[in-house]
Amino acid sequence: MPISVQNMFKERKFPFLFAFSFLLISVTILLFSYSASSPSLLLSTNFQVSDPLPPPPRPLPTRSPNNVPVSSTKPVSKTTAAASDVDLNVSLDIKWENCQLGPLAVDYIPCLDNWKAIKELKSRRRMEHRERHCPKPSPRCLAPLPIGYKVPVHWPKSRDMIWYSNVPHPKLVEYKKEQNWVRKSGDYFVFPGGGTQFKNGVQSYIDFIHKTLRAIKWGKNIRVILDVGCGVASFGGYLLDKDVITMSFAPKDEHESQIQFALERGIPAILSVIGTQKLTFPDNAYDLIHCARCRVHWDGDGGKPLLELNRVLKPGGYFIWSATPVYRDDERDSKVWKSMVALTTSLCWKIVAKTVDSTGVGLVIYQKPSSYSCYKQRKEKLPPLCEQKTNQNVSWYEPLSYCISRLPVDRMGNLLRWSTPWPQRLSSKPPSLPSEPDAEDIFIEDTKHWAALVSEVYLDGLAISLGRIRNVMDMNAGYGGFAAALIDQPLWVMNVVPIDAQDTLSIIFERGLIGVYHDWCESFNTYPRTYDLLHASFLFKNLKERCEIIDVAVEMDRILRPGGYLLVQDTMENIKKLNPVLRSLHWSTTLYQGQFLVGEKGFWRPSENDNRKET
């Protein structure tokens, strides 16, 4: 799509420093040049090289660990080799092999399936065996496809049914057959919308919550939700209809592949556990947290699991707990309830509703305080308030804390209030913006830049079919501008903030989006073949100093579905290093305008015949 002259002036894409007498002529020339038809992009096995784009507008300022400014929207450097001077059809001669793990190889997650490290653990009492234990060096084998793997069912049909052959794990069908989690029907798994606590179906349960507490307004003051121990994520899947996005999470445990079911359905989900380490979310992130029989001992380890929920829950946010101690009075449940009462009282959580529905299932709704008044009035100052943070601490391999996280304040030290309702919060000024005088202008300009880039290049110029795309990951998310620009599309975006980038994840949540922290030198907490599109804007600048591009490419290949796309905006130096690796994996690749690399993963996997040919 042509870029308008008005936007060129507004975004200063060219230094229009001509005298006024030549301005009209210059504009005429520009209009003429840009009125020509833009080159199309063919997703073939050969690169199509076209003229480079003009520099994008003012970049998003971020900081490296050395406090050196970097940018997620950095223009192509003039010192890099021109695309036309580089042979981009080169493929590395790599002897790829499938992971040799027997039937477990198809679902291999390196940092969660490191059985050698797990066997050496001294304790499993606090779920240490479900946490990350990454092998060193990172494995360079490929996850094979399940037998009979097919192109996934498209959204929205996928919410209710998926191919059995893509996730061939029937254990949940038998284990949860009385609770309507999932059923097998011919070549499909079908999801009736049931659950342990959803006796009348998840839609009825969602309506029951709203009727119980009218202050909960789905898609308005409640936009981002954390669902703990989510099962197959039907709760989050049905809330999508109400403009609510839910981060559903559960560990990789005996509930075989529940997160894999969720992602195959097209529902946001991630593998995680409340064990000994903090969740990979910022403080004060979620509007509401939900637990329906999630099997977490909230009072364990001195109450650290519930203190962790308190950390990621916004001031004034809600915690919904639907479990037998809420509505049964046998000896065991009564003991748990008393312990929960004592713990929530010490956290100054207030019970705002407690009820039982027509099926006999009950729930309690707590609300986190939005001021310090209750904390100051406690007779016993336990748990204590956490120390003031001098710097933002990214929750990555950080141990759980026995303290109450402090309430967020603005740059003037005033307590922050409830976020702007959805959808206004997507484009409103985030409370966590840096204190620099031009921070808001930079945020607004970044939002406009991504809106234009997605519209004019990603959707129009690259001609990527959105009908095939549901699960999207932005591997270097910045302020979440890429996800915001796609908000009207029938997809969702997992925004990833790398640990070596500026911490912008709080801003992403304040906009009503979801995301996590991650180190791309390690594997991501997801199953193979779970994303349709990976987006990486200048990801490799700091990354290549700590690990090799080939290891990142192997991880991209693991989590991307066959037929899925990788979209990279980067320097030619990094593209030249990445492209041969993708070609060796039998991906088709295309270069657009000198800085956008598009890769499409095929169905190829190594075979014994391939290895014989190479030897």
UniProtKB/TrEMBL annotation:
Residues 53-62 have a biased composition (Pro residues). It is a single-pass membrane protein; Single-pass type II membrane protein. Keywords: Glycoprotein, Methyltransferase, Signal-anchor, Transferase, Transmembrane. The lineage of its organism: Eukaryota, Viridiplantae, Streptophyta, Embryophyta, Tracheophyta. This is Methyltransferase. Residues 66-76 have a biased composition (Polar residues). Residues 53-76 are annotated as: Disordered. GO terms for cellular component: endosome; membrane; trans-Golgi network.
